TrEMBL record:
Lineage summary: Bacteria, Bacillati, Cyanobacteriota, Cyanophyceae, Leptolyngbyales
Location relative to the cell: Cytoplasm; Golgi apparatus, Golgi stack membrane
One Pfam family here: GDP_Man_Dehyd
EC number: 4.1.1.35
Organism, scientific name: Myxacorys almedinensis A
Protein name stated in the entry: UDP-glucuronate decarboxylase
Amino acid sequence: MRILVTGGAGFIGSHLIDRLMQQGHDVVCLDNFYTGHKRNLQPWMGHHNFELIRHDITEPIRLEVDQVYHLACPASPVHYQYNPVKTIKTNVMGTLNMLGLAKRVKARFLLASTSEVYGDPEVHPQPEEYRGSVNPIGIRSCYDEGKRVAETLAFDYHRQNDVDIRVARIFNTYGPRMLENDGRVVSNLVVQALRGDALTVYGDGSQTRSFCYVSDLVEGLMRLMNGNYIGPVNLGNPGEYTILQLAQTIQQMVNPGTSVKFEPLPQDDPRRRKPDITRAKTHLGWEPTISLDEGLERTIADFRDRVTPPTSQPES
Ligand code: NAD
Ligand code: UDP
Ligand code: UDP
């Protein structure tokens, strides 16, 4: 099959492309390299089945493909809040263009949506029926409202134009290849611990998240794409941890000598988050297999190769 991956030079997209290429597909990657990098695709450069196109999805593009994995959008609050209007354009105009393309060529279209559509949830854990509690005018809304519109667009193209859609609501995902300056919690804490810096915990660290290792997530995306269930379906690891627990775990694994430093909690930071994955289990036969400890070990090993502790200055 010929498969388009938007945002394929990013963290999740590049792991997905590895799997698709290993299966022998023709893969086209579209990326504007905002948070993605060519080095994530290095093994496939020059491969006859692989094509990389520098393109911003807010502009139309014509391609002939059988499937579209639509992942293009910055995912870390630091990056999506840097230019919020651009984030909205990517989610709305970008998703519209990719749905227009899927409609024209009759390709199956998978949207990488997010647990952020549930906002700061009042229901715990979050099932797909929950409609969410989102602040429409806050600093996160460019991303979470943007993704809500993207879901609406996908379902309207499905109802109005018969586009064959799949919608995944992805929960916090981590693993090798996250950027050192990504800004999300796992990469921040691992980089700080490796450098011997204090680990930054926002607020009192009692807020919770559920962390899914990237290979599990990619398996879920591929099952969703190739099955019959449209979704939306939660993809995430139901293990729930406070951010302070996460910091202490990483501290113990990397460098027990580092300290924890508390910093202000960002505005609208969700208090709790944990997926109800009943639908994924039922319809996709999917559940995560990698524990947090195992996933962190692999992630830390990857960062260790890239992040070196500051060398001490020779005494003069
Ligand atoms: P990422 O930032 O590493 O990847 C996003 C990719 O999209 C990057 O390569 C970036 O350059 C590209 N991109 C951004 N705007 C673009 C545009 N206008 N045109 C073309 N390319 C553009 O993020 P990620 O963690 O790999 O996330 C991938 C997708 O999964 C995103 O849609 C994100 O919203 C979703 N998601 C991720 C998580 C997570 O925890 N990682 C959780 C929920 C949802
Ligand atoms: N589009 C695209 N590539 C295609 C087909 C469409 O980028 O192969 C864009 C198109 O330019 C439009 C959007 O997708 O901005 C929605 O397309 P659709 O055909 O649904 O709407 P229309 O073009 O009729 O407004
Ligand atoms: N966080 C933290 N220290 C950091 C980065 C993030 O305590 O260095 C917190 C953040 O406030 C949030 C949680 O960790 O409560 C997850 O943040 P992230 O940006 O990774 O993802 P999201 O908030 O989008 O789930």
